[in-house]
Structure to design on (224 residues):
């Protein structure tokens, strides 16, 4: 773990955020299951995914197929999503210090970008699964699927390594099982929920967070 007194050179840092339950205060896709699913087949898919019997791509695709979803209903839902109140202050801090920031998510780009736009957050780079509309129908694509990984639809580790400058100090903020693998490649990890449990069990270094205020306070203190 990095010593308390050490300060960070902003030019050498990158802060990587998960989206659901990290930047957003809920899991946006999980809420969509409750709102838009035509029946309860999604429950079985969710169980199979949680027990590792299916990967998240199979799970997401099956759950999307079971939803009565179009652009209009999705656009009406997204303004209801609340962001962690400290996300904007963190993003402003990072921008003012010229620190790179990146969102890696196993949700869909359209959903995240719309939510960021609604919350007036501009210029934040998001890498996620693809969702678009053809006539009002949902079309998906998974450009960051790793054929060697059966777990994630967007396998975050590859993007973390590719998008982080060489020698960068990588700070990772996340909560889910899909964050475990990329967080292990980071130098500083903020964790809650599943990610926290895993890091705790495996005696890896991390800092617990409940909301982004803790991350904000830390970065404000650490960035020169
Ligand atoms: Mg998450
Ligand atoms: Zn993976």
């Amino acid at each position: 773990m990095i010593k308390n007194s050490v300060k960070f050179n902003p030019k050498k840092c990158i802060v990587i955020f998960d989206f659901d339950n990290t930047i957003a205060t809920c899991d946006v896709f999980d809420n969509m299951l409750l709102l838009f699913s035509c029946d309860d087949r999604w429950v079985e898919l969710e169980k199979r995914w949680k027990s590792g019997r299916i990967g998240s791509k199979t799970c997401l695709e099956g759950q999307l197929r079971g939803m009565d979803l179009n652009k209009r209903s999705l656009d009406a839902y997204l303004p209801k999503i609340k962001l962690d109140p400290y996300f904007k202050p963190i993003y402003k801090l990072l921008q003012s210090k010229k620190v790179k920031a990146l969102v890696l998510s196993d949700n869909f780009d359209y959903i995240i970008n719309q939510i960021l736009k609604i919350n007036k957050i501009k210029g934040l780079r998001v890498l996620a699964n693809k969702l678009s509309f053809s006539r009002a129908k949902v079309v998906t694509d998974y450009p960051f699927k790793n054929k060697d990984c059966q777990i994630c639809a967007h396998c975050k580790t590859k993007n973390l390594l590719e998008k982080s400058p060489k020698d960068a100090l990588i700070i990772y903020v996340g909560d889910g099982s899909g964050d475990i693998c990329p967080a292990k490649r980071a130098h500083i990890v903020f964790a809650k929920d599943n990610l926290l449990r895993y890091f705790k069990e495996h005696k890896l270094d991390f800092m617990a967070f409940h909301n982004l205020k803790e991350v904000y306070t830390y970065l404000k203190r650490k960035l020169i």
Notes: The beta strands are 13-17, 100-108, 125-134, 137-141, 169-174, 188-191, 207-208. DSSP finds ten helices and seven strands in the chain. The two ends are 19 Å apart (CA to CA).
